[in-house]
Design a protein that fits this description.
This protein is an alpha+beta fold and 92 residues long. The chain contains two helices and three strands. Strand 1 and strand 2 form a beta hairpin.
Length: 92
């Protein structure tokens, strides 16, 4: 089984983001949500996750991509007020 097929099956059967507890949700937008990482690497580790299942970033529509960039900019500014340096990672 290819990785993308496996991931699609896992997400369909038991998506860790579909039934997220409210305590982890920081913002819910039309296309994306900002959540606190449940297994953070560092303090204030946040995730911006799509509200629909995507395997690859290239699957995003132009509206989703624009929304992602707006949300990323907004939360980057918030984190920069707290931390001198931050890292942004995009993964699919």
């Amino acid at each position: 089984m290819k990785y993308d097929e496996y991931l699609a099956k896992v997400l369909k059967d038991d998506c860790p983001f579909c039934n997220l507890k409210e305590e982890y949700l920081l913002e819910k937008g039309k296309y994306f949500s900002v959540i606190m990482a449940r297994a953070p690497y560092i303090q204030d580790h946040l995730l911006i996750v799509p509200n629909r299942h995507l395997v690859y970033l290239k699957e995003m529509t132009k509206n989703e991509l624009s929304s992602l960039m707006n949300m990323l900019n907004k939360w980057t500014k918030k984190l920069e007020k707290i931390h001198k340096e931050i890292n942004i990672l995009l993964r699919d």
